[in-house]
Amino acid sequence: MPDARVQAAIDHWAPRFVQAGVDYNDFVRTTARIERWEDWLDGWCAVGDEHASLAREAEAARREQTAGEAWLRAAVAYHFGKFVWVLDAARARAAADRAVAALADGHRLLRTGVERIETPEAIGNLRLPAAERPPLVLLIPGLDSTKEEFFRLEELFLARGMATLSIDGPGQGETGYAQPIRHDYEVAVAAALDALAGRDDVDLDRVGALGVSLGGYYAPRAGAFEPRLKAVAGISGAYDFGEIWDSLPPLTRETFTVKSGARDEDEARTLPGRLSLAGVLDRLDGPALFITGKLDRLIPWEQTERGALEAPGGIFVCFEDGNHVCANIPYKVRPLAADWLREQLG
């Protein structure tokens, strides 16, 4: 019998894992043999190791496409093993490092031309489409999401002629080891764009951003303060994280506590109120798309709607059948966000 946390993961996470590249059969087999949350990390790292072994075998046989695809599966297995798993920082860091390395090997073998962008405030993967001076879209993860989760999402934008820069900002992934969560995420966005200044292979006059979950707060917040963002979209973003703190699942509160650098949950409880769009959105001059699902059990859909109502150029789309980040209907939501940003950026 799985404990409450494992059961919650089984009940809520399958769509999210699958849309990021975890094979559904892996999800079923792996979660079936994990009964304690303490064993979650090791269970998923074992899956990552299986795919890493397949990748090495395929590369040795010079089957580079197969090897690259196997490395992508390994990357998301390692990533989701440490996802909101904050029981042992050293072990979680080791799994995260393996996810980063596996994704890099996937890019290498698939010859995607990815380029690593690194600043103290943001570390990201830049990918370019087969287009001259394309617009750029920053992909912003949420709480304990990372750029390693975004390979498939990037493909939607690349197919539409847009460059992508998936970033880890403060409190996220590689950047989060030195930088705790901060409410003013525009600092990370500005640093990432500064790192690209002077390039002629992307059009930095046509830059947008898409954020998911907590990134759905970060993207409009950044758009309000960073004039280089011409259009922003957020999926399942909170309007005021502090207002919903007590209703958040224990895993989410524990992860926020760790990623914010708080000493304990009592101290962490005082911090989410800073993550609020109140008094911010009147500065957001450009178009802004706010998407959510009526079945979201993490961020109430009304929170996302409030952002759309306050933003001068806000557009609100709510899917009756969508869960958190609408991970159960990615074929509706992700193309919508990609098409909308393509239209706004020209």
Describe it.
With 346 residues, the protein is α/β, with parallel strands linked by helices. It has two domains: 1-111, Up-down Bundle (de novo design (two linked rop proteins)), CATH 1.20.1440.110; 114-346, Rossmann fold, CATH 3.40.50.1820. Helices cover 46% and strands 13% of the residues. It has twelve helices and eight strands. The chain has helices at residues 4-20, 24-32, 40-60, 64-81, 89-110, 151-159, 186-196, 215-225, 250-259, 265-268, 301-310, 330-345, and strands spanning 115-118, 123-127, 136-140, 163-168, 207-212, 229-235, 288-293, 314-319. It has an eight-stranded mixed β-sheet with strand order 1-2-4-3-5-6-7-8, with helices on both faces. Helix 3 (40-60) runs antiparallel to helix 4 (64-81). The longest helix is centred in the N-terminal third of the chain and has 22 residues, at 89-110. It is globular and about 50 Å long.
Integer count of domains: 2
Task: Classify the fold: give the CATH topology of the largest domain.
Answer: Rossmann fold
Tell me about the largest β-sheet. Answer: 8 strands, mixed
The CATH C-level class name of the largest domain: Alpha Beta
Task: Spell out the helices and strands N to C.
Answer: HHHHHEEEHEHEHEHHEHEH
Unreliably modeled segments:
none
- The counted number of beta strands is 8
Distance, first to last CA: 53 Å
Range of helix content:
40-55%
Structural class: alpha/beta
How many distinct helices? Answer: 12
Strand content: 5-15%
Fourth-tier CATH superfamily name of the largest domain: Alpha/Beta hydrolase fold, catalytic domain
The name of the CATH architecture of the largest domain is: 3-Layer(aba) Sandwich
Mean pLDDT across the residues is 97
Please state the overall shape, judged from the principal axes of the Cα atoms.
globular
The strand line-up of the biggest sheet is 1-2-4-3-5-6-7-8
From the alpha-carbon coordinates, what is the Rg to the nearest angstrom?
19 Å
